[in-house]
Every structure is written in structure tokens, then in C-alpha cells.
Amino acid sequence: MIRTGNEKLDVRTLVLPVAAGENIQEATMVAVGSDGYAVTATKTTGLTVAGMAIAPADNSAGADGDLEVTVRRGAFVLENSATAGSIIKKTDILKTCYLEDAVTVGISSSGTSAAGTVLAVDPDGITVEFNQPVQPTA
Description:
By secondary structure, the protein is mainly beta. It folds into two domains: 60 residues, no CATH class; 55 residues, no CATH class. It has no helices and twelve strands. The strands form three sheets. It has a five-stranded antiparallel β-sheet, with no helix packed on it. A five-stranded mixed barrel has the order 8-10-9-11-12. Strands 2-6 form a two-stranded antiparallel sheet. The chain is globular and about 50 Å long. The termini are far apart.
């Protein structure tokens, strides 16, 4: 069978190899480390956020790449920071937001990686776009 021209994925879906020891939960942000393996997004530098996990991937007992995680790009609602100086406000729309944990973003870039672009600020969460490539913060 010829594979050329067969649709495998769409432009909003990624399938990434999971790092050893990772247990990625559904509906959490997934990032890629400098080694190219998917990890649960955390407040650390050097990560590139890929999007949201659409299914869990428990590679806690496996080696690098033993499992893959399916990630969806687009605009998703996340928790707003509760930390003073990092809370995202309506005046932060179209600004870059940063990782605090796998479901929380803030406006402070200190000691963390970029998550995506703020599209909306509502009482029940922050809408963040993951479609644009966001380079890791050194």
C-alpha cells in the first residue's frame, strides 16, 4: 500500500514519545524536554509546551519512548495563578503566559517556561492557545 497522500494526523494533533518514568494524565498540559520526550508540564525552564493530553499515558515503569501520548493543540481553558504578581488579568490578553503546573498558568516568567498565548480571561479560567510555536525559556 502506498502511504503517500494518506492522512495520518490533522494539524492540531501530535503523537509524542513519552519520557521514562512519566505518568501523563488526560486534560493536562504536555511539554517536550530538550531530549525530545514528552513530560507533564511543570514549572521549570527549557520546556516547549505541545498542548493538552487527550488520553493518559502511564510510562512510569517504561523506558524513554516505550509509550506515546496523543496531544491536542488549540485553545484550552486552564487555571489562573493564585500567586501575587503572576495572576493573569484581562489586560494580559495576547500576551505569553507561563507554566505553574500541568493545569495552571501565570503571567510571571521567572523560573519557568512559556505555555502559550492568553486569548481570554474569565472568572472560571484562562483560555490559552497552543497552536503557535512557543520556544523554551532558557
